[in-house]
Design brief:
With about 55 residues, the protein is mainly α. The protein is about 60% helix and about 0% strand. The protein has three helices and no strands. The termini are far apart.
Length: about 55
């Protein structure tokens, strides 16, 4: 629910569909797969790699 509310807020603010890290557009395929996505695929991959290295 929290992610949906955050996505709705981004829609209202005109920021939906843009990566919170890079400001670049999030690809349509990613948004179709995960409509609440906050990061583009490249930023998400960097985040996941960082978490993997931290383990």
């Amino acid at each position: 629910m929290k992610n949906i509310d955050a996505a709705l807020t981004r829609i209202e603010n005109g920021k939906y569909g843009f990566c919170e890290e890079t400001g670049e557009p999030i690809g349509i395929p990613r948004l179709l797969f995960r409509p609440t996505a906050r990061l583009c695929i490249e930023a998400k991959e960097r985040q996941e790699n960082h978490y993997r290295k931290a383990r």
